[in-house]
Design brief:
The protein has no helices and six strands. It is mainly beta and about 120 residues long. The strands form two sheets. A three-stranded antiparallel β-sheet has the order 4-1-6, with no helix packed on it. A three-stranded antiparallel β-sheet has the order 3-2-5, with no helix packed on it. The protein is elongated and about 45 Å long.
Length: about 120
């Protein structure tokens, strides 16, 4: 909850490359993450849905944004319009978009770099 109503955004925060870590690195499925790549961009389309409202008794509003594959770090995507101001986020859902990296069986190969945050606009 914020002290004042603000505009919201989906933010792709800066991250360190895994190359700076000396131990082997594994993703959540146990696959070794390549240390040869320094590409920290988003590796799959992410559809981000945010439900937010202004005030405890405010009307919840659903806002959606797509974070495209290859979006670089330190990118901010504004949600809604300039009049959409909120002081609380009730829920956030992230689902795969259309441009995905998949395994041969069709499952999405999520990357450790498919990382976003929901923030107020500075």
């Amino acid at each position: 909850m914020s002290n004042k109503a603000s505009r919201l955004s989906v933010y792709v925060p800066p991250v360190d490359s895994l190359d700076t870590i000396s131990d082997p690195k594994y993703d959540l499925s146990g696959k070794l993450v390549s240390t040869a790549s320094t590409d920290t961009n988003i590796s799959n389309d992410l559809i981000v849905t945010v439900i937010a409202k202004n005030g405890e008794n405010g009307t919840p509003k659903t806002l959606t944004a797509t974070v495209s594959k290859n979006t670089p770090r330190n990118t901010r995507i504004l949600l809604g319009t300039t009049t959409d101001l909120f002081d609380r986020v009730e829920d956030v859902y992230v689902s795969p978009g259309n441009n995905l990296t998949t395994y041969s069986n069709g499952l999405v190969d999520w990357s450790i770099y498919d990382l976003i945050t929901i923030e107020t606009v500075p």
